[in-house]
Amino acid sequence: EIVMTQSPATLSVSPGERATLSCRASQSVSSNLAWYQQKPGQAPRLLIYGASTRATGIPARFSGSGSGTEFTLTISSLQSEDFAVYYCQQYNNWPPKYTFGQGTKLEIK
Amino acid sequence: QVQLVESGGGLVKPGGSLRLSCAASGFTFSDYYMSWIRQAPGKGLEWISYISSSGSTIYYADSVKGRFAFSRDNAKNSLYLQMNSLRAEDTAVYYCARSPGGYFQHWGQGTLVTVSS
């Protein structure tokens, strides 16, 4: 099983500042990496797939980078609605054994 | 717009069974692979099953293999998850999701399954 490790577990950032979230895979997943945002009581929402492609309707302040085992989600200027939990997910296996990171909680500083 | 609506959750005793449904609308359902993902209370996300667009190919996570059965009815735009031999650790919110390429593009709102005596 590919283990996904996110860091930090909690990130405190002020509105308007930049946030950088990290995700590491236990083995290469190429660019088969997605990021999701989840707010309390809501389903997750796809932000990024293919490591760097924004999903439909996702603001340009969200960007993804990386390949292989190291990935980053950057939110360039935090808005109040961005404070949430973020998950990375790899989808490199076939047959599928898709796995998620444990999440990073982005909180207001 | 794409809409996925899960139903069928509830309270069930350990060893019991439950059948979840997911009604899809707003897209050509028969064109898409679909998945179930679950989230235990206060925990992270766990992918549990994946079905091809025709329903002929299905994959499961090891944690549910042999106990859960995923199926679809393309004529009814619906997914089903038959859950047998339920355990306390199966307690979670269960989401269906559209899965065009291994990632989860659209999610339903989820249905809560509680396994407890």
Explain this structure to me?
The complex is a heterodimer of chains A (109) and B (117). Helix content of chain A is 0%, strand content 49%. Chain A contains no helices and eleven strands. In chain A, strands 2, 4, 5, 6, 9, 10 and 11 form a seven-stranded mixed sheet that branches. The radius of gyration of chain A is 13 Å and the shape is globular. Chain A starts with a strand and ends with a strand. Chain B is mostly beta strands and 117 residues long. Helices cover 0% and strands 50% of the residues of chain B. In chain B, strands 2, 4, 5, 6, 9, 10 and 11 form a seven-stranded mixed sheet that branches. A four-stranded antiparallel sheet of chain B has the order 1-3-8-7, with no helix packed on it. The model of chain B has no long low-confidence stretch (mean pLDDT 97). Chain A binds chain B through residues 32, 34, 36, 42-46, 49, 55, 87, 89, 91-92, 95-103, and chain B through 35, 44-47, 50, 59, 61, 95, 101-110.
H/E element sequence of chain A? EEEEEEEEEEE
| Principal-axis shape of chain A | globular
Terminus-to-terminus distance of chain B: 40 Å
Which chains share the greatest interface? A-B, 23 and 19 residues
Major β-sheet annotation of chain B: 7 strands, mixed
Structural class of chain A: mainly beta
Count every helix of chain B, treating DSSP H or I runs of 4 or more residues as helices. 0
**End-to-end distance of chain A, in Å?**
35 Å
How many separate helices of chain A? 0
What is the beta-strand fraction of chain B? over 45%
Radius of gyration of chain B: 13 Å
Overall, the morphology of chain B is globular
β-strand number of chain B: 11
Topology:
The complex is a heterodimer of chains A (109) and B (117).
Chain A lengths: L3 E4 L2 E4 L5 E7 L7 E6 L6 E5 L3 E2 L7 E6 L2 E6 L9 E6 L8 E2 L3 E5 L1
Parallel strand pairs in A: 2-11
Antiparallel strand pairs in A: 1-3, 3-8, 4-5, 4-9, 5-6, 7-8, 9-10, 9-11
Chain B lengths: L2 E5 L2 E3 L5 E8 L8 E6 L5 E7 L6 E3 L7 E6 L4 E6 L8 E7 L7 E2 L3 E5 L2
Parallel strand pairs in B: 2-11
Antiparallel strand pairs in B: 1-3, 3-8, 4-5, 4-9, 5-6, 7-8, 9-10, 9-11
